[in-house]
Amino acid sequence: MEMVERHLMQAAEALQRTIGKIEAGEFGEAGAAIHAGRTLQAVFQAIFDERTRVEKLRKHVTGTIGTSALDLHAARDEIGRRLACLRDAGAG
Questions:
Q1: Which pLDDT score is estimated for 64?
Q2: What is d(CA 51, CA 54) in angstroms, rounded to the nearest whole number?
Q3: To 5 degrees, how large is the angle CA 27–CA 32–CA 35?
Q4: How far is Cα 63 from Cα 40, in angstroms, rounded to an integer?
Q5: Per-residue DSSP letter, 63
């Protein structure tokens, strides 16, 4: 993440310098502004993609699926109920 933040800051600073030159009437830097803008866009996309991956991993680790979480207590109760049914069926 540190590398992404560093690239973000560098691209933002380059864009700021270029905009300053354009505002001062130096239009030779317009191509640099386009490049810096594209770089910023790529960095933001990388941050967004990484955030999505982290969120998916967090949901996987915590057992969250969709909008609901796994209810481990209910699962344990259901397993106990089914085992009791098997014990009762085997005793007959």
A1: 60
A2: 5
A3: 140
A4: 34
A5: T
- Other Cβ atoms within 10 Å of 9 Cβ, number: 11
CA 61/CA 52 separation, integer angstroms: 14
What pLDDT shows up at residue 24?
A: 85
How far does Cα 8 stand from its chain's mean position? 17
Report residue 27 CA to chain centroid gap: 37
Helix/strand/coil for 70: coil
Burial code of 50-81, b = ≥16 C-beta within 10 A, e = fewer?
A: eeeeeeeeeeeeeeeeeeeeeeeeeeeeeeee
User: Tens-digit pLDDT profile for the chain (92 aa)?
Assistant: 677 778 778 877 888 888 888 888 887 777 777 777 787 788 788 888 888 888 888 877 876 655 566 778 888 999 999 898 888 887 65
H or E element in which residue 64 lies = strand 64-65
Residue whose tokens read 């009762």: 88
